[in-house]
Design brief:
Number of domains: 2
Distance between the termini: 26 Å
Number of helices: 12
Radius of gyration: 22 Å
Bound molecules: pyridoxal-5'-phosphate
CATH class of the largest domain: Alpha Beta
CATH architecture of the largest domain: 3-Layer(aba) Sandwich
Order of helices and strands: HHEHEHEHEHEEEEEHEEHEEHHHEH
CATH topology of the largest domain: Aspartate Aminotransferase, domain 2
């Protein structure tokens, strides 16, 4: 008998006894950090995504920061991303002293609008203010149009960092998100609400050996033992040099052991998410809601299932659903409307598609351990509230 008062969150990690055993094993037998689990996790990520190199870091936020540093982002540079993302997608550029700007989203895909990107690039070129880096975000786990983005990157000479915090487990054309086939760097997140977890954690993927060396350098204090990066001969086998200012963004062996164990279950998690999404798509069709594009069913990683209200007040719907124990959420308050970014001169109305999406959006519960009864309750509650 389902408990009608049980709170159903919008997202939740899934941990089983294999995960727990993997972490306990590290605690009892191995290094807690800088042991064998980190490289094992990095290799597993390469095997899964088909990227050549992976560096595990302690969050996607750290990963985005080192990705910008590795591409040489600095004061005076311009970085573009989208407004409908978590603030980390923009903050990474600000950490480097660069200027941030945004490209609005396409209302149907909810990803970066390629036509607006084209227009903005053409204008920026005439003004001599082209971006050094573009950070497209695979919103809710569905890939951006990476072929078109790569084409524009070649035409205008900017670099591309995929913010794939939502995307691990999803695919684009014939490749996994993370393959870096159409970008310089891809960044993943293993925060507990994302497709799989290491508690906190992230990874930076690339196919370029030179970029990978820079990523490692910036994630590890700017310190290296690599003769190619050192500025003089080694004094001896113990020798290392700090050649730039880096950070301690390492992931630990404890976190990596959890990641190795979770990665084995990732495809199963995604299958479960897709089953739940297919049912939402069918059973919510008759309600006054805009649903995600149905063609995303088999390629998105489905980090989030988001609907847009067509005629109801979002706050009222949110409150009524919460009163019924349905933990709907909202993603995201557009970054340019945050006070920190308003102080840089961004204004309401600057990116109308992102603002309209935010105004009507609701994230429905979706996670691998969600039961058919849980989902039935969500669908039932929506029917009652939107009646
Ligand atoms: C979660 C998230 C991040 C940050 O991930 P952390 O691992 O928590 O630092 C960055 N970008 C997007 C789009 C996210 O959803």
């Amino acid at each position: 008998m389902p408990d009608p008062k049980k709170f159903i969150p919008y997202g939740r990690h899934f941990i089983d006894s294999d995960d727990i055993d993997a972490v306990v094993d590290v605690l009892e037998n191995h290094f807690l950090t800088q042991g064998a689990k980190v490289p094992e996790f990095e290799r597993a990520l390469c095997d899964y995504t088909n990227a050549r190199f992976a560096t595990a870091v302690n969050s996607a936020t750290s990963g985005l920061h080192v990705a910008c540093l590795a591409l040489g982002v600095t004061k005076g540079d311009l970085v573009w991303t989208v407004p409908n993302s978590f603030v980390a997608s923009a903050n990474c550029a600000v950490y480097c002293g660069a200027e941030i700007d945004f490209v609005d989203i396409d209302a149907s895909t909810r990803n970066i609008s390629i036509s607006q990107l084209e227009e903005k690039l053409a204008k920026a070129k005439t003004k001599g203010r082209l971006p050094k880096v573009l950070i497209p975000v695979h919103f809710s786990g569905a890939s951006c149009d990476m072929q078109k983005i790569q084409h524009l990157a070649n035409e205008y000479g900017f670099r591309v960092i995929e913010d794939a915090a939502h995307g691990l487990g999803g695919s684009y054309l014939k490749s996994k998100i993370g393959s870096c086939e159409h970008s310089d760097i891809t960044v993943l997140s293993f925060h507990p609400v994302k497709s799989m977890t290491t508690a906190e954690g992230g990874a930076v993927l690339t196919n370029c050996p030179a970029l990978n060396k820079q990523i490692l350098l910036y994630a590890k204090h700017g310190v290296t033992r690599d003769p190619d990066l050192m500025q003089s001969e080694a004094d001896g086998p113990w020798y290392y040099q700090q050649v730039t200012l880096g950070y301690n963004y390492r992931l630990s062996d404890l976190h990596s052991a959890l990641g190795i164990s979770q990665l084995k279950k990732l495809d199963g998690f995604v299958v479960k998410r897709r089953e739940l999404v297919a049912r939402y798509n069918t059973e919510l069709k008759h309600l006054p809601l805009s649903l995600p594009l149905s063609e995303e069913l088999h390629c998105s990683a489905w980090h989030l299932y988001m609907v847009e209200l067509q005629e109801h007040d979002r706050k009222a719907v949110y409150e009524k659903l919460h009163a019924k124990g349905i933990g709907v959420n909202v993603h995201y308050i557009p970054i340019h409307l945050q006070p920190f970014y308003q102080n840089m001169g961004f204004r309401k109305g600057d990116f109308p598609n992102s603002e309209k999406f935010y105004h009507n959006a609701l994230t429905l519960p979706l996670f691998p351990s969600m039961t058919a009864d849980d989902q039935h309750r969500v669908i039932q509650a929506l029917n009652e509230v939107l009646a």
